[in-house]
Amino acid sequence: MIYFFYGDEEFNLSNEIKGLKNKLDKNFIEMSYKEFDNPKFPDLIAAVSSQPMMFGKMLIVIDCIKYFSAKSEDGGFDEKQLKQLTAALDNCNENLDIVFKAYSDPEGKKKIDKRKKIFKLLSKYNPKEFAQIPSYKTAELESWIASQAKSKKLKIPANVISLFLFQVGSNLRMLDSELEKLKVFAGNNAVTEEMVKEICVNNEDLFAFIDYLAADDKAKALSQYQKLVTTRHPLAILLTMHTMLHNKIQIKAQSLKYSQDEIAKMLNMHPYRVKLEIQRLKNVSLKNLVRLKENLTSAEYKIKSGTSNMDVEQEVEYALLQ
To answer: Which pTM was predicted?
Structure first.
């Protein structure tokens, strides 16, 4: 069986492949499961022409995201090669399952160009798109959390799910990981709001830190920063702040033109988070936010290029307090 899995939701896509892998004979897993990373054409043909041995089913996963790059010409394959690939796929061994995997990272540069002939070719073979659930679709995310919790036999009331989503965010892999932690902590008991606040990942301390900086309250910001570096690496703080500041700048700039819900959709954020940000940014200068972002960008460059005259913690601190 040939499958074509693509989309920008890595967690669901990986789980689908995991389900297929779990059906293989675990005694022969090293021989019955193979992965290939964007193989060149001869290696691709060899892979799809594989012959399973006496251990039954074989699963081959082919990461093929580079085949859909806008910069490549049909994955680098010409018409003759595409016909050869079609013939190879149509004549696959019945005990061979092949998954063509194309994860399109929404935060990176890996994008799928659906105009490519290779996309149209693979779309003939059991295609399934794994789309990321936007943060503003809270009902859909809460439904996913409820379903995932049920599969883990974890009791979590609706009101607790809402808090859980708001606190952890919309990344499915992170949500699943935090549900696992709650399962260990709660056992057969129902999850409470107190459990979520105590056990689950929380960036509220970083939010508070950013708020002090945005309000130009450098004394409180420095105090909060010194607390943060006891549990986080300064560079990790800096990188997280980049994303948070980007969102604040966008919200501040767009709040004069668009509604709260419209901004939430544009930025893929929880609507209530947008509402809070608009309130917090009411008396904050957009100019100050942009200046802070520029300072952090400069600090990151100096740290990564090795041109800084200070250690990492001091470089980040200097950028924050300029």
So the answer is: 0.65
